[in-house]
Amino acid sequence: MIFFDLDDTILETAKTNLLIFERAQMDLHIAIDADEFRGRIRTALRSRMIRHMDFAYNETIGIDPLDYMLMEEPYEEERLELFKNGVYGDVKDILGEVSQEEFFAAFLKRRFDYTEAIDGMLELIKDLKAAGHKIGIITDGISEVQHRKAQTLGLDTLVDHVFASGDFGYGKPDTKFFFGAMKAAGVRAKESIMIGNNIDSDVFGALASGMRAIYFGAKPKNYAVCYAPDAKALREVLREELR
């Protein structure tokens, strides 16, 4: 089975996250430098996550603090209320007359913005699927957010399984996550390949679990691992690995 990471392996997550801040700022009519707006909010999100949320657990499953702004379902409700109150209080001085409800609504409306895939990746997955390969996703993050990203990108109809760390209680590179995903998919490690852009979480976590692994990025300087810098190269690497 071929497993892919989601964020910045299939999905243009970093690029979309930047756009979410830009679009929210535009909707809120906040006339300050875009980098300052994003930086102030990012700082508040991170510090308030550490203070108010179950930090150890949320770090374990690999949450981006921005994810808290994109959730509809209850998640640590009492803590989340404290978190949101704190974030708003930390950035209120740059928001002018914007209310707390308007501030969070501007971000929540962006929860379906994850629509752009990395060049060539969806086509590769479609071709692998057409060739008869089973495809899965192993991704870190809150279950609601990660499954929505996959659905928004149309992956729920392309892949056989989407496994989010929030469903398991631990994230990459913990081997329990990889073993749990393989067990749920009904495959063994020697039958599995993991592809991802984080060499520690995706590659070494997979290798430690007995899987083969492909680093989706430029040739690493410090490690001798299989790698592919883009979708075209990945197609060729997979052709060799799947012989």
Structure in words:
- The chain has two domains: 2-11 and 116-241, HAD superfamily/HAD-like (Rossmann fold, 3-Layer(aba) Sandwich); 14-108, no CATH class.
- Helix 10 (199-208) links the parallel strand 4 and strand 5.
- The protein contains eleven helices and six strands.
- The two termini are 13 Å apart.
- With 243 residues, the protein is an alpha/beta fold.
- It has helices at residues 13-28, 34-52, 55-60, 77-91, 100-108, 121-130, 143-152, 165-168, 175-185, 199-208, 231-241, and strands at residues 2-4, 135-139, 161-164, 193-196, 212-216, 227-228.
- The model has no long low-confidence stretch (mean pLDDT 95).
- It is elongated, with a radius of gyration of 19 Å.
- CATH fold-level assignment of the largest domain: Rossmann fold
Q: How many H/I helical runs?
A: 11
Q: Describe the biggest sheet? A: 6 strands, parallel
User: How many structural units, i.e. domains?
Assistant: 2
Taking all Cα atoms into account, the compactness measure Rg is 19 Å
What is the helix/strand order?
Answer: EHHHHHHEHEHHEHEEH
**Helix and strand composition category:** alpha/beta
Q: How are the strands of the biggest sheet laid out side by side?
A: 3-2-1-4-5-6
Q: Kindly, what is the distance between the CA atoms of the first and last residues, rounded to a whole number of angstroms? A: 13 Å
Helix content: 40-55%
Residue-averaged pLDDT: 95
Shape: elongated
Could you say what the CATH architecture of the largest domain is? Answer: 3-Layer(aba) Sandwich
Q: How many E-type strands?
A: 6
CATH C-level class of the largest domain: Alpha Beta
